[in-house]
Write a structure and sequence with these properties.
Layout (H helix, E strand, L loop, with lengths): L12 H5 L6 E6 L4 E3 L14 E6 L2 E10 L11 E7 L7 E6 L11 E9 L2 E8 L1
Antiparallel strand pairs: 1-2, 1-3, 4-5, 4-7, 5-6, 7-8
Length: about 130
């Protein structure tokens, strides 16, 4: 599936390119010791500038999901699942991703692990059942 790719920045490069080594990175604040997403130059919790990418386990759980049946572009295979996944490193550490399983098998609470799909110089984090 061809996906719209993000513009790479100094702040998000580790998130979008860590998959080249099979690693998932989230931004980490050294001062308040918390993860946050999306990555940025300032911690949204404490406003610290002492932030950096930090590797996480690549495990996740489906918190919520929807099934999209609309093929928005000719090369987009439907149906597909869009999910909010939560990482075990910190309660509330969530982001949107696709779950690459048959849509009828996805459920809230489903354990996942990250896999990466390379498109150009971006490695998109996707999830499959763990």
């Amino acid at each position: 599936m061809h996906r719209k790719l993000p513009a790479l920045t100094a702040d998000n490069r580790a998130f979008w390119q860590g998959g080249e080594q099979g690693r998932l990175f989230m931004h980490w604040c050294e001062d308040c010791t918390s993860y946050f997403h999306p990555p940025g130059p300032v911690c949204p919790k404490c406003a610290s500038l002492s932030v950096r990418p930090k590797e996480v386990s690549g495990k996740a759980t489906v918190v919520s999901f929807t099934i999209n049946y609309q093929p928005w572009t000719p090369n987009l295979a439907a149906p597909f699942a869009i999910a909010i996944v939560e990482l075990p490193e910190q309660p509330g550490l969530r982001f949107l991703s696709n779950v690459e399983e048959p849509v009828e098998q996805i459920y809230i609470g489903m354990p996942l692990r990250v896999v990466f799909e390379q498109q150009e110089d971006v490695w998109i984090p996707l999830f499959i059942k763990d």
